[in-house]
Amino acid sequence: MPLEVDVLTLFPAMVEGPLGESIPARIQERGLATVRVHDLRRWGLGRHRTVDDYTYGGGAGMVLRADVVAAALADVRRPDTTVILLDPAGSVFRQATAHELAGRSHLVFLCPRYEGVDDRVRSMVDLELSIGDYVLTGGELAALVVLDAVLRLLPGAIDEASVAEESFAAGLLEYPQYTRPADLDGAAVPPVLVSGHHEQVRKWRLRESLRRTVDRRPDLIEDRALTKEEARMLDELRGDGGGTDEASG
Ligand code: SAM
Predict the structure, then answer these.
(1) What is the mean pLDDT of the chain?
(2) pLDDT tens digits for 96-123?
(3) Which CATH superfamily is domain 3-158 in?
(4) Is the pLDDT of residue 248 over 60?
(5) 210 lines ligand 1 (CB under 6 A)
(6) What is the spatial distance between Cα 143 and Cα 121, in angstroms, rounded to a whole number?
(7) How far is the CA of 185 from the centre of ligand 1 (A)?
(8) Across 61-177, where does the E strand assignment appear?
(9) How far is the CA of 143 from the centre of ligand 1 (A)?
């Protein structure tokens, strides 16, 4: 069964553009997912299809009306639907949530603009997601970030080995990768990678993955149980005086 997705937005073209390119487009062409984008004004009120109004109590900006959202959700919601509100106050989106959402059958993304939503909308949704501690002009880019991360996890979407080894898959950042040329003006590829010795390559990658994570995202290590091999490598790295991941920080 393909994943079905409905996106509710005031700017459909903002969402359709990126989804019509590259891997997200191919995923849809291959029938792994169906994405429908709806203009929220379809549920707008009156001759002008109004969707927002002034905030009670006074203050700058317009707020997306709860009755408009309720009407839109009444049309697109099914018993198996997960409705997601993009909002800076939502829980921060992580790879684990992407995996969870990739296992659902129907996702609805609600993308507010301006000052956000009437707070009563929160009780109409299943999940509130933020993509980070900063403020965007609208939910479209945030919905695209979440959707892109979910689509590529659908079975058959991309090479399963890439998904298994990439950053966050095992709770660590990915190891460094290189391609030709083997020597770039004196900057050589680590010799072990061209040695053809699979076990040594595996160990090198695990060590570098740990080194990069300790250097750049020590919080990930704190949140994760380590295997004996990882704990030993980490001790060695710390004994060496920590990481040497030059591009960090
Ligand atoms: N007044 C809101 C506040 O202070 O939390 C900010 C509204 S923002 C200008 C407009 C919309 O952009 C939000 O309702 C939300 O849909 C989206 N948005 C902004 N930043 C976001 C973030 N970090 N993650 C997810 N959505 C975001």
Answers:
(1) 94
(2) 999 999 999 999 999 999 999 999 999 9
(3) SPOUT methyltransferase, trefoil knot domain (3.40.1280.10)
(4) no
(5) no
(6) 17
(7) 45
(8) 62-64, 81-92, 106-110, 127-130
(9) 11
Residue 207 has pLDDT above 50, yes or no: yes
Domain-by-domain residue ranges, the chain?
A: 3-158, 170-239
Q: Which atom of ligand 1 is the closest one to the Cα of 131?
A: 24
Judge if the beta carbon of residue 243 lies within 6 A of ligand 1.
no
Instruction: State both tokens at 226.
Output: 């380590």
3-class SS at 229? helix
- For residue 129, how far is its CA from the centre of ligand 1 (angstroms)? 10
Which segment of 34-43, 195-204, 217-226 scores lowest on mean pLDDT?
Answer: 217-226
Cα separations in angstroms, 68 against 39, 50, 64, 98, 192: 12, 9, 8, 28, 60
pLDDT of residue 247: 52
Q: Of the residues 86, 117, 118, 148, which should be mutated to test ligand 1's pocket, given the most ligand atoms within 8 Å of the CB?
A: 86
CATH of 170-239, one of 1.10.1270.20, 2.60.40.420, 1.10.10.10, 3.40.50.300: 1.10.1270.20
How many angstroms separate the alpha carbon of residue 115 from the centre of ligand 1?
7
